[in-house]
Amino acid sequence: MLDQSAEGYVTADGRQIGPVVLELKNITLRFGGVEAIKNISFDIREGEIRAIIGPNGAGKSSMMNVISGFYVPQEGEIIYKGYKRAKMPPYQVARTGIARTFQNIALFEGMSVLDNIMTGRMNLMKSGFLKQALWWGPAAREEDEHREKVEKVIDFLEIQHIRKTPVARLPYGLKKRVELARALAAEPQILLLDEPMAGMNVEEKEDMSRFILDVNDEFGTTIVLIEHDMGVVMDLSDRVVVMDYGKKIGDGTPDEVRNNQDVIDAYLGVSHDE
Amino acid sequence: MEAGFAGRDMGGDRVVTTTATQSALESVPALLARNAIENANLTAYREKEFGIWQSWTWKQVKAEVDALAMGFLALGMAPGDHVAIIGRNRPALYWSMVAAQSVGAVPVALYQDAAADEMAYVLDHCGARFAICGDQEQVDKVIEVQEEVSGIEQILYLDKRGMRKYDHARMNWLMDVQAEGLAARSRFEAELKTRRAALNYDSTCVMLYTSGTTGKPKGVVLSNRNILETAKASCQFDTLTRKDEILAYLPMAWVGDFIFSMGQAYWAGFCVNCPENETTMAADLREIGPTYFFAPPRVFETMLTQVMIRMEDASAAKKRMFDKYMAHARKVGGLILDGKPVSAGDRLKYRMGEMLVYGPLKNTLGLSNIRVAYTAGEAIGPEIFDFYRSLGINLKQLYGQTEASVFITQQPDGEVRSDTVGVPSPGVEVKIAESGEVFYRSPGVFVEYYKNPESTASTKDAEGWVATGDAGFFEPDTGHLRIIDRAKDVGKMADGRMFAPKYVENKLKFYPNILEAVVFGNGRDRCVAFINIDLNAVGNWAERNNIAYSSYQELAGHPRVLATIQEHVEAVNASVAEDPMLSGCQIHRFLVLHKELDADDGEMTRTRKVRRNIVAEKFADLIEGLYGGADSVYTETEVSYEDGRKGVLKATVELRDAKVVAPDGQRMAAE
Predict the structure, then answer these.
(1) Which of A79, B146, B347, B410 to pair with B108, CA 20 to 30 A apart?
(2) ABC transporter domain spans which residues (chain A) (predicted)?
(3) With contacts defined as CB-CB under 8 Å, which chain A residues touch B51?
(4) Given A156, A161, A206, which is nearest B279 (Cβ)?
């Protein structure tokens, strides 16, 4: 077990993990009579790569949507940066420093890569719609500043060559990377990645893993990750939450989770009355 | 350092070339000092970063280099030290080279795509104390081999990304070194001046390793005399001036890049543009629109293939217009470029074509402003060559070697053909030995192979004549040199006829479908060939013909692909048969290899030249099959993946017979 004092802990590869930044307490989410999430609690620490895994339909994406503010749980509370988070729409959650990517790519297909990434900074722009449309005075200056930030992200993710290519023309792996770029452009403190490697080949997965580690390393971004590829999860993450049928069945380091009997059962499909 | 120049006019376009300054121009740092005065506010370097072209004037470059050099002094770089430079073309790496020269050290550029063990040999052989790496990837390789290579004391890196967690006890960010150098100016300025003053024509300018199609790479030591005299002569030959622009995208370890992006750039004072990264080359080329351009035939081939593939997808009207005007360009374009008489009607039509097709096409390719373009390294297909010339692009050929500081022969304007390599460059003497081997002597001739006196002696004789290792002859009418093949590759067949594999391979490679060909037949009674298909061209063809394939191997074995290749081989046979001297080199049997020849597997050099012996050894079973008459051969081949892992490729390769043409009349023995 990791030494998890309030201040944080040091990972096996020597990274300093900070105090808890987001804490989920007794979250229950219902859709009508269906309980998608049943009384789950866990925390996310600053600078951590935190994975959420589980079989299909376990409630992982719902959990992600709760964190991003898209779903509001019927029970339980979310403590973010020490304060209980009030009920707020997702765009306001985004303003508090939480950005995400989607399981199914949700980019503007007709727009260029650059414009897509620029939309990631929408929340940070001060000038209003009219000023931006007229592109006048402070609005133009502001755009320059945002463009500079976006270019740094483009450089970081090595997508210079497709800067002006319409997204619709890109292969799947690159679209995923553009989506990550858009999320990064928002300069989030917590980055939610919903199956960033789904449908990728080995080489694309290696690239994406490297980028995730680099983001965490360079910007100190806390990363919450849903992923099916167990190799990727075990290699990347510091701590793993395992869900099954909306319940938390495991929480700990990759090694602890790997040796947890409940987790093994959930994945191998042991019948529940045994 | 600028103090000395204080009060002088820093105006842009002043010509100050007195004999007094000329005589002192005996090193690259001296040229930089001159440019910083004469061309102070002209752009010396551009690099696209964060989507914007950043630029530096000569004056700024001087300041950057001085600061770097003082930083190197602070790290204890001593005269004669070797400094390995590993990375893609970036201004700061070029400056590091000049800064190393400034303190009396010798820059050694390495191929950045070399695997760690290849790098280990070079680093160990030159005994580099410092390694300057472009990014984390290169740093990792150096660290990996640091155990076996004892010499490396300091690793410097340019791109900070991912480097934060490394142990920095013997590692520095290049910019930190520069900042320290700047801060310590008062301590090191005098020392730097002394070191620079000690440089002369005989001090080493750079050491570059030959790629070596056989054996281990050799370190070619080039002096300031070699580089500067060559730069001077070649700049005059093509009237290169400070107004020219080039794109530096070829490996820094290659002598050509050193001559173009350092020698000529510093001599003429023109601007060196560095692309954003490897993948943006085409877009950057278009944005810069260089006036002077060098590319190996492969690049021109790829560009042409891209154009043709895209024209296949164009609308019928556009395609018709393109075909019509390209046909006209093929007829008169070359003649107009060479200043030959062409009728007024044809000229008018060509001008129309320029407006409708050639101009926009050149603009798309980024070749609108080209004044001089060169290709070298391999033979270029006549059709490819003529395509560019017919567009009005002054594409010429040159023949050169690392040992010659590039230039041996080149084509003067107006005397350009695809099958010769031109006349001896200014200051170069060329002679053909009785064996047919080409020898040359020039101010550019290298000093020695580093730590290898035997090879130096066997390559360069006491009078300074250097053996090229190529067989060739001068055309009696034009005085142009023609190269047949590597001298050591030219052999005899069992019945005594001449065997010149490269000659046949080049003819094969002129077909867009064929990427590489290797012909065997030395000492045998007939020739056979291995073919590599071009995945781009053949893949596109497959797509248009609804042929599904999942891998190179599958496409290479497709019967229709084999049939197409067979047609090409037979056409080449017919063409080879026309030359009585070489008619014995016709290909009797061939196969399409199940894998692409790759430098990672040692089958090619890093400059993509086939290592014939290694290929023959590795695929001995296939050669035996070809000579033995089998219809197919099952083979297993070890391959290396990009991350260094090994795997085994299993395949059953189909062997095919090709029609050969019986030569007319008597066979001529090559004596």
Answers:
(1) B410
(2) 22-270
(3) 147, 151, 154, 160, 163
(4) A161
Pick the range with the lowest mean pLDDT from A2-16, B109-123, B217-231, B257-271.
A2-16
Last-in-domain residue among A160, A186, A212: A186
- In this structure, the answer to whether residues A130 and A152 fall within a common structural domain is yes
Out of A162, A186, A210, a domain closes at A186
Task: Evaluate whether residue A102 is within a structural domain.
Answer: no
Q: Dig out the tokens for B377 from the structure.
A: 């390294």
Q: Classify A69 in phi/psi space as left (phi over 0), alpha (psi -120 to 50) or beta.
A: left
Domain of residue A145, residue span: 110-186
Query: Which one of B51, B279, B643 has the shortest CB-CB distance to A154?
Result: B51
Of A147, A151, A160, the CB nearest to B277: A160
Shared domain check, A75 and A20: yes
Find the mean pLDDT for residues B616-623.
92
Put simply, the answer to whether B277 touches A214 (Cβ < 8 Å) is no
A258 assigned to some structural domain? yes
Pinpoint the alpha helices (H) of A121-201: 129-134, 138-156, 172-185
Contact B283 A151 (CB under 8 A): no
Q: Report the alpha-carbon distance of residue A263 to residue B463 in Å, rounded.
A: 80
Q: Provide the chain B residues 142-161 that lie in CB contact (below 8 A) with chain A.
A: 161
Taking the C-alpha atoms of residue A102 and residue A113, their distance in angstroms, rounded to an integer, is: 16
Chain B residue numbers with beta carbons less than 8 Å from the beta carbon of A155 are 49-50
**What is the interface pTM, i.e. ipTM, of the complex?**
0.77
User: Which of A115, A150, A160, A170 should one mutate to test binding to chain B, selecting the residue with the greatest count of B CBs within 10 A?
Assistant: A160
Rounded to whole angstroms, the Cα distance separating B133 from A197 reads 31
Closest CA to B363 of B450, B283, B458, B481: B283
Burial class (CB in 10 A: 0-12, 13-18, 19+), A206: middle
Q: Is A218's CB within 8 Å of B279's CB?
A: no
A223 part of a folded domain: yes
Please count the structural domains in chain A.
Answer: 2
In sequence order, the 6+-apart residues with CB closer than 8 A to the CB of A29 are A35, A36, A37, A59, A62, A66, A71, A73, A74
- Is A194 found in the same domain as A89? yes
Where does CATH 3.30.300.30 sit in chain B? Answer: 491-657
Which of B161, B165, B280 lies closest to A160 in CB terms? B280
Cβ-based neighbour number of residue A95 at 10 Å = 12
CB-based burial of residue A11 (10 Å sphere; 0-12 exposed, 13-18 middle, 19+ buried)?
middle
Chain B residue whose CA is closest to A213: B162
Note the CATH number of domain B491-657: 3.30.300.30
pTM of the model: 0.82
Mean pLDDT over all residues of chain B?
89
Q: How many CA atoms lie within 13 A of B142 on its CB side?
A: 32
Same domain, A147 and A86: no
pLDDT tens track for B390-404: 999 999 999 999 999
B26-288: CATH topology: Rossmann fold (3.40.50)
List B residues 185-204 in contact with A (Cβ-Cβ < 8 A).
Answer: none
**Cross-chain Cβ contact B50/A163 below 8 Å:** no
User: B161 and A156 in contact by Cβ < 8 A?
Assistant: yes
Coil, helix or strand for B277? coil
Backbone angles phi, psi at A17, to 5 degrees: -100, 135
Judge: B162–A217 Cβ closer than 8 Å, yes or no.
yes
* Nearest residue in B to A202, CA atom: B643
CATH number of the CATH domain containing A80: 3.40.50.300
The tens digit of pLDDT for each residue in A229-238 reads 888 888 999 9
Domain co-membership, A84 together with A160: no
Residue ranges, comma separated, of all CATH 3.40.50.12780 domains in chain B are 26-288
